[in-house]
Amino acid sequence: MRTKIIAGNWKMNKVAAEAIAFARDLKVKTLNIRKTEIIVCPPFTALAIVHDILKDSRAEVGAQNVHFAASGAYTGEISAEMIESAGCRHVIIGHSERRQYFGETNQLVNQKLIHVLTTSLTPIVCIGETLEQRQSGQTENVIRTQLEESLTGLTTDQLKRVVLAYEPVWAIGTGVTATPEQAEEVHKFIRELIRSRFGQKSSDLIQILYGGSVKPDNIRDLLSRTDIDGGLIGGASLNVASFVEMIKITEDLIN
Ligand code: 13P
To answer: What is the Å distance from ligand 1's center to 158 Cα?
Structure first.
């Protein structure tokens, strides 16, 4: 059976002191969590310190972005090896904000993914349609293309290490959440695409997170759906109380 994941994407929020306070609090408040996988994704500047605080806890640390090369003359960039050495276990690839503001394409996502898979990191690959694409009936085409192009060249064994996140762009930071039915429909479609390319077992095993205005109020309904294996949460993950509340609701759902 697939485990459930609650991942917080802090985006460009929290200086080191704020990150430290959050991590200390999270550690204490999640002592009783036994089943839910917890991931926090701070900005690069706080990865090592947050990992240091959380290393004996259930929570793991992830980065929000990565370069496709191991090292080299890429001023301002951070490699998977550096992220690994900061104690991270995960890395988000192809978030819609990277696509929208920094021109990331499916091809770049694929390059990053292929490199990340040479390290110990678990990639969390994000896909999702814009409002315009949804309204013009393009959702399935967009998702299919994003998935095919992002996963080009991957073997079934490599896919086992990948987590997917469906984040409809129109639901990110807008307060508009996809209904559990809308989310489940796309999650099911993604699982079917994985089945047709990688087989039934891969499709049964792959974890698919939902992201887009997830909060304590709506997480139970979303995560109760068969094909939704967790949340990738922005705004509501910045506050320890609401992040922990969502973790507890998830833990409750598993029991
Ligand atoms: P919000 O939860 O703030 O809508 O952000 C979702 C997201 O982009 C997580 O990666």
So the answer is: 26
Q: Annotated catalytic sites, by residue?
A: 95, 167
> Which is the closest atom of ligand 1 to the Cα of 215?
2
Take residue 33 and report the two structure tokens written for it. Answer: 């969590």
For residue 172, the ligand 1 atom closest to its alpha carbon is 4
Q: How far, in Å, from the CA of 167 to the mean position of ligand 1?
A: 8
> Which pLDDT tens digit goes with each residue over 30-57?
999 999 999 999 999 999 999 999 999 9
Angle between the 16-29 and 47-54 helix axes, to the nearest 10 degrees? 20
- Distance of CA 97 from the midpoint of ligand 1 (Å): 10
Instruction: Give the closest residue (by CA) to ligand 1 atom 7.
Output: 234
CATH H-level, domain 5-253: superfamily:
Aldolase class I (3.20.20.70)
**pLDDT at residue 173, as a whole number:** 86
Stretch 237-250: mean pLDDT, rounded?
Answer: 98
- Distances from the Cα of 249 to the Cαs of 4, 29, 157, 180, 233, in angstroms? 11, 14, 32, 16, 14
Annotated domain spans of the chain: 5-253
Mean pLDDT of the chain: 97
In this prediction the pTM is: 0.98
